[in-house]
Each structure stands twice: as C-alpha cells, then as structure tokens.
Amino acid sequence: MDARTIEYKKLSGTTRLLHWVSAVLIVAMIPIGVIMQQEGLARPTQDLMFILHKNGGVIVLLLVVLRLIWRAAYPAPPLPAHMPKWQVKAASGVQWGLYGMLIVMALSGYIRVRAGGFPVEMLDALNVPAMVPRSDALAETAQTIHSNARFVLVALILVHVGAALRHAVARDGVFSRIWPPVGRG
Ligand code: HEM
Fold it and tell me: 8 near 80, Cβ under 8 Å?
C-alpha cells in the first residue's frame, strides 16, 4: 500500500465530537457578534443575538477547557511521517494559536460584559457571581481587545481550514482522522 493512502490512527470519537461541536459554535459566533451590533435590527432580534452570543461564548470557553484537559489525558497520535517537518510544526502552532485566541476572545467578551454591568444569562441563572469589578475603563479595554483579536482568530481559522482542505484533496488520511464521529467515522 502507498504510504500516502495508509489510514492513520483515527482520533477518538470524543475528540472528534468536541472538535466539531466547538467548530460549529465558533463559526456561528463570529457573524452573530458582528451582525448583532448593526443598526436597524429589530430590538427583539438584537436582544436574542446578544443572548446567543454571550452564552455561546461561555460554552465555547468551557469546551476549550474541556478539550485541553482531554488532550492532556489522551494526546493526539503523531501526524503521518510523510508530512514535512515545517508543516507538522505549523499545524501545531496554528492549533495552539486557536486555543489561545479562543480563550482571549471568550475572556475579553466576558470582561467587557461584566465590567460594563450587563448580564450573562446562563451564569446568572446558575448564580455565578461576576468575577470582575464594574468599571467602564476595564469594559472599554476588553472591548478593544475583543474587537481586534477577532482578526487574528479569523486568520488562524482560515489557515487551519485551508490546510485541512489540502489534506482532504490529497486524501492522505489526515482529514479523515478528524472526520465527525458519524457516517464514515
Ligand atoms: C470564543 C468566543 C467568542 C467569539 C469568537 C466572539 C466573537 C465576536 C465578534 C467577531 C464580535 C464582533 C466584534 C466587532 O464587531 O467589533 C463580538 C462582539 C461582541 N462579543 Fe463576542 N465572541 C466570543 C465570546 C464572547 C463572550 C463570552 C461574550 C460575553 C459574555 C461576548 C460578548 C460580546 C459583545 C458584548 C460584543 C459586542 C461588542 C461590544 O459591545 O463589546 N463575546 N464577539
């Protein structure tokens, strides 16, 4: 069998499930975050989008933490030996960059909202107290970080998706090992 067509050890069903649930959530969060601020939106629509965005962001943060714990407990099998070293390093750098930027986005969003004195409905329902003081200056700083960090996050997502598509086209087993744990999985 050609080395490039070998089926590499698949990632566990839990790893693939966590990956795709977070991917769908994150891809939805970005346009919702931009659209919810547009003028001319009906108030109930805008309120609903804010609620979805804020609470979705908290869920993204929890998923990232869960994924990091899962990853530490069950490290990913190595990438195929035919991949050039620089590609393996770049893939790892982009993945860690994504984890880092998701944490920055979620924490800056949380601080922006809490320091601004606004609710995070899910946490309020669970009686989780605000973990930052009320401060307009802090809210403004967090807003600036949240707004600018999205460009870095989007750039990393584009590189990550681009590389994944290259593997899918090359059919070298890398894309299929992260395929959702349904159908082909
Ligand atoms: C990984 C998770 C998150 C992503 C990818 C994300 C993404 C975004 C994006 C792309 C925007 C538009 C920025 C702009 O137009 O300047 C935005 C805005 C916003 N986000 Fe998030 N966000 C996340 C988490 C959160 C969380 C956890 C909260 C609050 C609990 C939050 C609250 C907000 C708010 C209030 C805005 C409107 C801008 C503002 O008034 O500060 N976000 N978000």
Answer: yes
Site to substitute for ligand 1 among 146, 151, 153, 157, most atoms within 8 A of C-beta: 146
Question: 128 C-alpha to center of ligand 1: Å?
Answer: 20
Distance 179 CA to ligand 1 centre (A): 28
Measured CA angle at 13 (ends 12, 17), to 5 deg: 120
Task: Tell me which residue of 16, 4, 22 sits closest to 106, measured CA to CA.
Answer: 22
55-77: per-residue pLDDT in tens? 999 999 999 999 999 999 999 88
**Ligand 1 mean position to 37 CA, how many Å?**
10
Task: For residue range 163-181, list pLDDT tens digits in order.
Answer: 999 999 999 889 999 999 8
Calpha distance 141→54 (Å, rounded): 18
Instruction: Report the alpha-carbon distance of residue 159 to residue 42 in Å, rounded.
Output: 35
For residue 96, give both structure tokens.
């860690």
The one-character DSSP state at 4 is: G
Instruction: Give the residue ranges of DSSP H helices in 74-135.
Output: 85-115, 121-125
Which CATH architecture group holds 9-170?
A: Up-down Bundle (1.20)
